[in-house]
Amino acid sequence: MKGYNETTYAILGILTTDCRSGYSIKQFIDRSLNHFWKISYGQIYPTLKFIVQEGLAEVHTATTSGKPDKNEYTLTPKGIETLRNWLENPIEQLPAERNEILLKLFFGRFQTSETTISLLENYKQKLQTRMETYQSIEQAIIDCADENDMDSMYWLFTLDYGKKVTRAAIDWCDVTLEKFITKEES
Amino acid sequence: MKGYNETTYAILGILTTDCRSGYSIKQFIDRSLNHFWKISYGQIYPTLKFIVQEGLAEVHTATTSGKPDKNEYTLTPKGIETLRNWLENPIEQLPAERNEILLKLFFGRFQTSETTISLLENYKQKLQTRMETYQSIEQAIIDCADENDMDSMYWLFTLDYGKKVTRAAIDWCDVTLEKFITKEES
DNA sequence: AATTTCATGTAAGTGGTTACATGATTTG
DNA sequence: CAAATCATGTAACCACTTACATGAAATT
């Protein structure tokens, strides 16, 4: 454990919701942030420990009847301050995505056109599946959100981002495939 | 060093071009693959060692007059086979991008509208800069590419991907900003 | 004479996942 | 009673970056 990284802030942010334990943080991320943020227990528990060490949150063991003991974390004023400070600062740099399909395509002169085409078709299919997932999540949010639910609004914003970017990638697949197919015919 | 990872294949791919040393591989990546693939010397040199160990390439020290000695790597038939095999296999899964701006936006109910708006504007500005970079690279490729240059075609494909996806992200910024601004007015 | 470019490499550190260990309670 | 879910944690491993060490030649 080193310093304040994005994972720390992500957990700090989640602690402002009703999720207060390592286990429920994981669930929250898997359900709500999954399309742009993933995290494993191997990060969550050490980070929670770090957060307490830094005085950003306090732990209290909740002994509920029926279920196992739970470590519940509550943000301290310092924790809230730290989170808000991070939220207010613009991101330092755009995420640099590694893209395996672009890497394969880049070395395309080493392959046959058919191989490249099937690579692109496979990629497009995966993007379409992702798009369908986004759409069904969106529908689920719209169906169960009450009017004044602010969280669901922000959730929809992030989903919209995913949808727009995925749509653009699918379009690119179509355009690129088109170029390969006309090249094959000629 | 463990096994065959994407970095290994990336380097194998570059070794099919005129780049045959660690130093020139780094240059190649910085010049041509930078928008979807980055790599450091700390990866390149150990990976080259691994590639030789696996019999995918051979090293020969080239003593050029004037410049320092250079370790030149040449793919073996096994190396070519390994690369081609990787190129032919579809990608296993879509890259899962972590997106800091979406994370910040997600916790937006913890901020003022003005903060969110300036966050989005800053992000949009960064995307626009990226777009301009793509455009000028594209122009440079078009200007200096000869008709039959296959590499430049594939290069343009990957750039087109970057442009389309960035365009979509900029659009999303506009749409989302619009929603915040109308919300502020009401 | 100083700086940049060419060239190769390593050690330490960061950020992360996977697999494992443990154990209670609930549901089928 | 077996399986799933709830719950917390760690050790090993992987991928990668940064900073450093070295040194020669070219450029300014």
What string gives the helices and strands of chain A in order?
HHHEEHHHH
Largest interface: A-B, 62 and 62 residues
**What radius of gyration of chain A results from the CA coordinates?**
22 Å
- Sum up the overall morphology of chain A in one term: elongated
**Assembly state of the chains shown:** homodimer
Mean pLDDT of chain A: 92
Uncertain parts of chain A:
none
Q: Strand order within the widest sheet of chain A?
A: 1-2
Plain-language structure description:
Two copies of one chain form a homodimer. Chain A is mainly alpha-helical and 186 residues long. Chain A has two domains: 6-88, Winged helix-like DNA-binding domain superfamily/Winged helix DNA-binding domain (Arc Repressor Mutant, subunit A, Orthogonal Bundle); 100-185. The first copy, chain A, contains seven helices and two strands, in the order H-H-H-E-E-H-H-H-H. The first copy, chain A, has a two-stranded antiparallel sheet. In chain A, a hairpin with a 7-residue loop joins strand 1 (57-62) and strand 2 (70-75). In chain A, helix 1 (6-14) crosses helix 3, helix 2 crosses helix 3 and helix 6 (113-144) runs antiparallel to helix 7. The longest helix of chain A is centred in the last third of the chain and has 36 residues, at 150-185. The termini of chain A are far apart. Chain A binds a DNA duplex (28 and 28 nucleotides) through helix 2 and helix 3.
